[in-house]
Write a structure and sequence with these properties.
Length: 293
């Protein structure tokens, strides 16, 4: 039996169950401030990791206080709506999964966008969708079921390729920092320094203090973020994978069949600028497909 996750349609845009339609609508009308810092990503591409890095850079490497939740410090615009974001102290740091065209940025504001290869993103999104049972009712869903939805773009927050392409088109513009999850893994120091420099000396200068940089790296490591996970997300039923789950590049190998990998690779290769972000992943998938042929 094929299972599909449950979503709520907000003007044709799929959202998890429990995300109020009114919040989504009001989010689209948010009037951004010049000092705003958006942390944007397609789901499962490293959003929370980047939120935490930005928090740490702005707070001299001090982690979220005990009992605090990231969703209050850096709220998710289309989940909480415009009013909650307007109550934030400035500079406002705001999470979003919206594509570029729907994101209410300010021309003088800043955006940090994180992308991740679609193979690992799909796997991570599958476990996410399985695990948040009250949002998706997909606890028994298989990867095969989920893969078809992902490839068709019939998942919450829309199509992976539409989202990443919409932001990639703005790479290199002022006020815009585009990073990949894979780059953050390969060079965490470089990624944190890039964030600090992007935020400028007043907000991001902390990254040039060695002791603070060490604290930022320590508190944003996978090991540190794996502890006390209620900081990042609500609890999941027993037996479901944790929100900060595996944190690796290449877990797709444990889930994809060669024919599935071929189809997703064809889709990726159809946008060469996107495929060019992950030459090593593309080459590994090609080999995986050839070996399975
Ligand atoms: P996996 O499910 O592959 O482990 P998002 O925050 O956009 O939902 O992304 C979640 C993904 O980022 C999960 O991937 C999670 O484990 C990974 N992640 C979170 N914090 C991380 C960290 N400090 N280092 C590496 N990966 C991290």
């Amino acid at each position: 039996m094929t299972r599909t996750p449950s979503y709520i349609l907000h003007d044709g845009f799929r959202m998890p169950m429990g995300f109020p339609v009114e919040s989504f609508q009001s989010a689209l009308g948010y009037r951004a401030r010049p000092g705003d810092i958006f942390v944007s990503a397609y789901p499962k591409c490293g959003t929370t990791w980047m939120q935490n890095i930005v928090w740490l850079v702005l707070h001299r490497g001090d982690p979220l206080p005990a009992g605090a939740r990231m969703t209050e410090a850096i709220p998710h615009l289309e989940e909480v709506g415009r009013e909650a974001v307007e109550r934030l102290p400035e500079p406002r740091v705001i999470k979003t999964h919206l594509p570029f065209a729907l994101t209410p940025t300010h021309p003088e504001g800043r955006v940090i966008y994180v992308s991740r290869n679609p193979f690992d993103c799909a796997v991570s999104y599958y476990h996410h969708t399985r695990g948040f049972v009250h949002h998706y009712d997909f606890a028994e869903g298989t990867f095969d079921d989920y893969f078809e939805c992902f490839l068709a773009g019939e998942v919450d927050f829309g199509d992976y390729f539409d989202n990443v392409s919409s932001w990639l088109a703005h790479r290199g513009e002022p006020g815009f920092l585009f990073l990949t999850y894979e780059h953050m893994q390969a060079d965490p120091v470089g990624a944190v320094v890039a964030v600090g420099d992007f935020l400028g000396p007043e907000l991001g200068g902390t990254v040039h203090d060695e002791a603070i940089l060490d604290r930022i790296l320590e508190h944003s490591s996978f090991a540190a973020m794996s502890r006390d996970q209620l900081r990042w997300a609500s609890a999941r039923p027993a037996g479901m994978p944790a929100f900060v789950r595996k944190g690796t590049i290449g877990d797709w190998r444990n889930h994809f069949r060669p024919d599935q990998a071929r189809r997703l690779l064809d889709r990726l290769n159809a946008t060469p600028t996107l495929a060019g972000l992950w030459p090593e992943v593309v080459a590994t998938v090609e080999r995986f497909v050839d070996e399975g042929a």
